[in-house]
Amino acid sequence: MSTSAVEPGTRLAERFRLEDRVSESDGATLWKAIDEILARPVAVHTFGPDFPRVHEVVTAARAASRLTDPRLTQVFDAAEDDKAAYVVSEWVTGESLTDLLASGPLEPERAAGLVAEAAEALAHAHEAQLYHLCLRPAHLVWTTGNTVKVLGVAVDAALSGLTTDQPALDDAEGLGRLLYAGLTGHWPGDEEEGGLPAAPMTDDHFCTPRQVTAGVPSYLDTVTVRACLPESRKGQGALASPAEVAEALADVARPMPIPIAYPSTPAIASASHTEGLDVAHRQQLPVQPLPPTPRRPPSGGGSTLNRVLMTLVVLLVIAAVGVGAWTIGRSLGSPTTPETKGTSPGTTTAASVPTQVVKPKKAQGFDPLGDRDEKSEIADLAIDGKPGTLWKTERYTSADLGNLKKGVGLLLDMGKSVQISDVVATLSDVPGATVELKVGDSPELSALKTVATQKNAAGKTTLTPDQAATGQYVLIWFTRVPADAGNFHGTIYEVVVHSPGSA
């Protein structure tokens, strides 16, 4: 299928509808498209008949599709046949490093945190023998979901026909250039890049970040020099791989999701027809009706009756006061009356039982009502003990999962049946999620019993069973997911399961 034959509205694989042409270069065209099955935007590359590297690009895309680090662009599909060749990948929204530098250099710690995340992600790609080779500010994105994303691993190099015999060193230098740009607002190259001015030079080599921008910490200056400024190393060893760059930046603070402040009554203009109702119900407490105003009896001949009724009322009040005083006195004088009659007998005992963390054997994305999988390739990131990694659902068009299904979730296999004291799930900081805790001895949805529910959940959420719960499988089940830049998805950074012991 030639580029000229591919127009807005074209459908690929009976699923991906091309909408807007984003860019075109050397016979390769980038489109914004819609995945009509999952109702989400995707990026699609198509190729003209004269594009010489279709096979290389499709092969690279298929290899990149096996990468599981959420900080790398996901590849969803790639095809090469007589009718059409295309690559479908994640549509990423946010601000690239170029955008972030539009008003000047970043705070040093923020620049270092962004590059540290990118270095760790690329180190994972290198473990799979996949490389970037053409890192530029446009490839490093701070997404609208408040995460770091590195675009174009393997695919962009194939698109450009780039090869090298030292890929680890080249990607380490690329990371160093990104750090240089973040610290100074300049690009350490002979020409401008992405609107950034070229870095100043002295004695025929680039100035170090500290020579360009005041306030750059010396250790970040050193990391940058070791990564991409060989003329200024002065005996210091080069950082020769993304893993070494990541290690050098391991102690910097990482950019964290930015909590969003909501008004006491959230606006729901862009939400579904049920969004926010739970909050509204909590805020609008029922108003107790006032007691009816006593009717005044008619004057005249009823005066005798009035006096009789008034006398009866007074006698009843005196009797009630007497009974109340007798009851209170008896209660105070009785040493055997329990003081916490309404307290559950097991409350104190349960609180004193120590709990232990039980490590799940494995995790998987759970979508029994759809295609039976929900990003299982990154599910283990929610149980790896690292708060900076995460599992997330697919993106949906509304909080109720686009009306496509009743729920999706993360299923934990504990390896054996265990008693569950509670489960602590660290969710996105954006409120709006409804999550249920389901437990059972079979991974089938019908066999998992709901033991706890949390509405409008956000951040660290503790799900405590309302009764004893035991099972091999623990499911964190989203029935509603929070908003994210016009889309909706559920996010779990980390899950910790507590148990009083094996069942």
UniProtKB/TrEMBL annotation:
Top-level taxonomic group: Bacteria
Protein keywords: Kinase, Serine/threonine-protein kinase, Transferase
Region (Disordered) residue spans: 284-303, 329-354
InterPro entries in UniProt: Galactose-bd-like_sf, Kinase-like_dom_sf
Pro residues: bias regions: 288-297
A Gene Ontology molecular function term of the record: protein serine/threonine kinase activity
Alphabetical list of CDD domains matching this protein: PK_MviN-like (cd13973)
Compositional bias (Polar residues): 333-354
Keyword Transferase tagged: yes
Gene3D superfamilies, alphabetized: Galactose-binding domain-like (2.60.120.260), Phosphorylase Kinase, domain 1 (3.30.200.20), Transferase(Phosphotransferase) domain 1 (1.10.510.10)
Keyword Plastid listed: no
Protein name: Serine/threonine protein kinase
Species for this entry: Nonomuraea phyllanthi
